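I am still getting used to backbone structure tokens and would like to learn alongside you. Please make up or recall a protein chain and show it to me in full. Would you write everything just below, so we can both look at the same thing?
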Amino acid sequence: MPASGWPPTDAAMERPDDGEAGPEFLVVGHITKPHGTKGEVYVWPLTDRPEQLFAKGRELVLGDSEGAPGDEPLALRVERVRAFKRGLLVKFEGFPDRTAVEPFSQRYLLVPAEAVPPLEEGEVFYHQLLGLEVVTTAGEVVGRVREVFETEPAHLLDVQDGGRSRLIPFVERIVREVDLEAGRIVIEPPPGLLDV
């Protein structure tokens, strides 16, 4: 079910002109810090397709610390990339050393929404889940999705109803249906999940 490109601040990236729901850019990675002295940065991928979106020659947009592209987005072209620990070390063209990439720390990497490879059947972008109503298979309203947290071993939906917040694992054994057109997620919670 999960797919690449969930932005942490969906509203900050809404298309300003056409009124369509959905962001103009999708977040695909978070730069934590420079690595070494040769201009590499450590990137935590926020996508299921890092090999496509961080490929050599791929152009990414440097977002701010909230995931927004800003008024004059800076385009970065991937010069090289390699796996490192649980993330990636990425070198961008034109940024030769650590000093040049230090301002990139704690910022997000984005791609235009139309540049993201098409989703496979059953996949959704995380930003599409925000605001959806969550109901049980028995018809009980649980609340609305306020946030999606990328955690291990399962991503979590932060579902709020009034002042109450519940964390629902976004896994197939619990999430039975995601109906974007109806604006609804149907879950079959195990005993006790909604009591927490």
